[in-house]
């Protein structure tokens, strides 16, 4: 069923205010109508009410009226009103300037194959490969793609044909070390959070128990297997209770196979912080101020 709306009897904003006040519980809209009908309605109403000569408060009433009837947003209605004031408001149809594609799916496949063989080099290096393939090696299938610009190589790499088959070799792989999760203490001591702090020529390996707030730190001259593993052994031995969970951020000093093997032999569960969750290791991060300020108590040494 098509509903025809006739508002020709509304000649001023006072009548519009009365209409909006009395139709708060109803929805008289043209949402189901075509764009041409909506534009024609806005154009005629703007001309009939003399929108350009209205006061600011009256213009707000007209905009509210259009929002209720057409369902358009305020910003879109303002744009349409501006076009209606300048002339007849009509729907614009998009016409493509250059309807013919220069680089076909075959050219995109050549780009994909080149990126796979050369591990996706920069745009300049890729363009030089295309040029040499056509000009120096005489491969005619590279004639079209050899004229591609640097910026358009990026556009082709974002195309649907390219992304549907390309395997991005630069994606970060999941390292099977530790479990990505917030630390769990089960209400008892033994779950420690660990972080490394660099100060001058020494590294501080700081650790804090979640329940008792027992804090122990050791110092090492450098981050290496020969220094890190004995330091962790010394750190764990100083706790007066059994350690069952070792939580750290994703730094390489703790997330490596040597530390993972060391904790596994001690039957200690290793967890690591989640991405975009800075509070996972916030407990030990708040304790690092001692080392950064240089005011380090003697009990840490």
Write out the strand line-up for the largest beta sheet, numbering strands in chain order. Answer: 1-6-5-2-3-4
Oligomeric form of this entry? single chain
Which fold name fills CATH's third level, the topology of the largest domain? Nucleotidyltransferase, domain 5
Report the major sheet: 6 strands, mixed
What share of the residues does DSSP label as strand, in percent? 5-15%
Categorize the overall geometry.
Answer: flat
Mean pLDDT: 82
Low-confidence spans: 297-301
- DSSP summary: helix tally: 12
Helical content, roughly? 40-55%
**Structural class designation:** alpha/beta
- Termini separation (Å)? 85 Å
Please, what is the CATH homologous superfamily of the largest domain?
Answer: Ribonuclease H-like superfamily/Ribonuclease H
Whole-angstrom Rg: 34 Å
Which second-level CATH architecture of the largest domain applies? 2-Layer Sandwich
Name the helix and strand elements from N-terminus to C-terminus, one letter apiece. HHHHHHHHEEEEHEHEHH
CATH class of the largest domain: Alpha Beta
Number of strands: 6
The number of domains: 3
Question: Summary?
Answer:
This protein has helices spanning 13-22, 35-49, 56-70, 74-86, 105-118, 123-135, 150-157, 160-163, 225-237, 257-265, 282-287, 289-293, and strands at residues 179-180, 191-199, 202-209, 215-220, 245-248, 269-272. It is of the alpha/beta class. It has a six-stranded mixed beta sheet with strand order 1-6-5-2-3-4.
Element layout with pairings:
Layout: H1 13-22, H2 35-49, H3 56-70, H4 74-86, H5 105-118, H6 123-135, H7 150-157, H8 160-163, E1 179-180, E2 191-199, E3 202-209, E4 215-220, H9 225-237, E5 245-248, H10 257-265, E6 269-272, H11 282-287, H12 289-293
Parallel strand pairs: 1-6, 2-5, 5-6
Antiparallel strand pairs: 2-3, 3-4
């Amino acid at each position: 069923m098509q509903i025809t709306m006739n508002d020709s009897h509304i000649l001023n904003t006072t009548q519009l205010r009365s209409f909006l006040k009395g139709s708060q519980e109803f929805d008289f809209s043209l949402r189901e109508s075509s764009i041409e009908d909506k534009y024609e309605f806005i154009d005629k109403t703007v001309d009939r009410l003399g929108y350009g000569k209205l006061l600011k408060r009256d213009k707000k009433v007209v905009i509210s009226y259009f929002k209720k009837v057409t369902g358009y947003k305020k910003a879109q209605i303002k744009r349409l009103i501006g076009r209606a004031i300048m002339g007849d408001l009509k729907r614009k149809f998009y016409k493509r300037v250059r309807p013919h594609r220069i680089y076909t799916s075959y050219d995109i496949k050549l780009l994909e194959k080149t990126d796979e063989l050369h591990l996706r080099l920069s745009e300049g290096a890729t363009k030089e490969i295309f040029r040499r393939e056509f000009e120096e090696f005489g491969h005619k299938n590279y004639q079209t793609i050899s004229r591609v610009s640097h910026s358009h190589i990026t556009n082709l790499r974002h195309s649907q044909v390219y992304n549907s088959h390309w395997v991005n070799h630069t994606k970060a792989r999941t390292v099977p070390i530790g479990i990505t999760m917030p630390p769990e203490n089960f209400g008892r001591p033994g779950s420690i959070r660990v972080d490394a702090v660099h100060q001058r020529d020494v590294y501080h390996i700081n650790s804090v128990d979640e329940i008792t707030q027992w804090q122990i730190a050791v110092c090492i001259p450098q981050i290496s297997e020969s220094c890190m593993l004995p330091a962790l052994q010394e750190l764990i031995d100083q706790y007066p209770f059994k350690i069952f969970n070792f939580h750290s951020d994703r730094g390489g000093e703790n997330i490596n196979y040597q530390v993972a093997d060391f904790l596994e032999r001690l039957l200690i569960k290793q967890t690591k912080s989640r991405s975009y969750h800075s509070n996972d290791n916030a407990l030990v991060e708040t304790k690092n101020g001692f080392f950064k300020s240089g005011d380090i108590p003697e009990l840490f040494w």
